[in-house]
Amino acid sequence: MTAHGGHAARLALLRHRGNPRADIDYAVAFDGRTGGGGLVQLTFVPDKLLLEAGAFDAYLAGFDADAASAVEPLALDILDDINNEIVPRWVRVVVSMPRDGSAARMHKVVAEDRQPNWDNPRILLHVPSP
Questions:
Q1: Given 47, 97, 111, 125, which is the most exposed site by the fewest CB atoms within 10 A?
Q2: Assigned CATH topology for domain 3-124
Q3: For every residue of 9-71, which 3-state class applies, written as one string?
Q4: pLDDT confidence bin for 8, thresholds 50/70/90
């Protein structure tokens, strides 16, 4: 499968549905593991769309071990995909990968974005720090 074909297949796994209360800011969180063993935490404030339960795990499984081991590009790819498919008001992606095979030594990347002019510090106070 080509890199472009693999990406399109992963994007198709990000199934979503309408947000039943788009008038309210609230945070949604998912976590999962990639094929390369990295822990990925996704937290977002939805706008018009919600990610369906189980879709995030299926999406993460679509990364091959090589792609999943490059922590910075992985975090930024996930951020871009969520921004493009779900279009949240605010989103944070945290990717943590063991260094040297040791769970005590981690390589962590935090990527965050928000829609222009969106700000709700009160809801973000309830989002745990990475």
A1: 125
A2: GTP Cyclohydrolase I, domain 2 (3.30.1130)
A3: HHHHCCCEEECCCCCCCCCEEEEEECCCCCEEEEEEECCCEEECCCHHHHHHHCCCHHHHHCH
A4: confident
